[in-house]
Amino acid sequence: MDQLKLYGQSFSSRILIGTAMYPSPQIMLDAIKQSGSQIVTLSLRRQNPSDQSGQDFWQLIQKTRCQLLPNTAGCKTVQEAVTLAKMSREIFNTDWIKLEVVGDDYNLQPDPFLTVEAAKILIKDGFKVLPFSTDDLVFNLRLLDAGCQVLMPWGSPIGTGKGLMNPYALQTLRERIKDVPMIIDAGLGKPSDACLALEMGFDAVLLNTAVAKANDPVLMSNGFNLAVQAGRHSFLAGKIQTKQTAKASTPTIGMPFWHQTS
Amino acid sequence: MSEKKINISVNGEPKNINQQLTLSKVLNELSIDKQMISIAVNSDYVAKDQYDSLTINENDLIDILTPIAGG
User: What is the ipTM of this complex?
Assistant: First the structure.
């Protein structure tokens, strides 16, 4: 059976889904269900002692029975990311961490140097690091050197919906790093973007804004689910070579009304 | 004689508490439920098993984090 394998765990779904920005908690739950995802991302923030929303959110997430993937979104230094990862491990009881170290506020591009440094520290401490990276080949190679067993290059900057902004760089990444699971994280806008990513040989996609901010998040979530399956089937099946000239698909032998003129 | 008080910050808000309190006692004093929270003091993670032994000092910055949605 075709399964996504991440850090020794197998998943039948190739979608990881975020939990932010949905119109309501129920729509979030329905969208997660429709996506088929078995991995959800979430985070930690300061709590107002009188506010029970953290508890409420936690109870909701437990209903999904998904693998939890806490993130270090918003962290700008190695220390911030490492501290938040340790706090996430304690509260969510998982050593999985989606490592994000922001390098620039304008496009939320991850800082390659700090991400690699943080990854080394976290892996040494027993974390299973899923690092958010760009499509830069060397950045991703250094993350592998640091011990990451999964890579999560962006399609385009977070929340932009621009899809696969640099197909050449992504294709190069896939060709140079063949045996490590790669998840396209961030920037996807529509199901066809996800389909293309899977057709290119990427192993999965991580979605949030494209689903949560769609007019109908649940329907869009289902669309992504189908698109990812289509893309994966296409990749496994192997597409035909493109040609410059037309070639009839219907046999010409036995064609009626066809008379040689000379 | 009243106990000496110290100033600390909890999630960015100034608080005035008795000195020589452990983190655990500070949480009790502030009526904070210890379930589903994780804490950093001066940006360093503090494991739950250290709450009873860590003493909070003047100007300490306490961050109390709880789960939220994320992408």
Answer: 0.91
Q: How confident is the model at residue A48 (pLDDT cuts 50, 70, 90)?
A: confident
Domain that holds residue A92: 4-45+56-237
Domains of chain B and any CATH numbers: 5-65 (3.10.20.30)
- Tell me the pLDDT tens digit for each residue of A98-145: 999 999 999 999 999 999 999 999 999 999 999 999 999 999 999 999
* A98 counts as catalytic: yes
Closest CB to A20: pick one of B31, B64, B70. Answer: B70
Residue A113 inside a domain? The answer is yes
How many domains, chain A?
Answer: 1
Tell me the residues of chain A between 149 and 208 that have a Cβ less than 8 Å away from chain B.
Answer: 158, 206, 208
| Residue A254 is assigned to a structural domain of this protein | no
The token pair that represents A100 in the structure block: 């994000």
Q: Is residue A70, in this structure, part of any structural domain at all?
A: yes
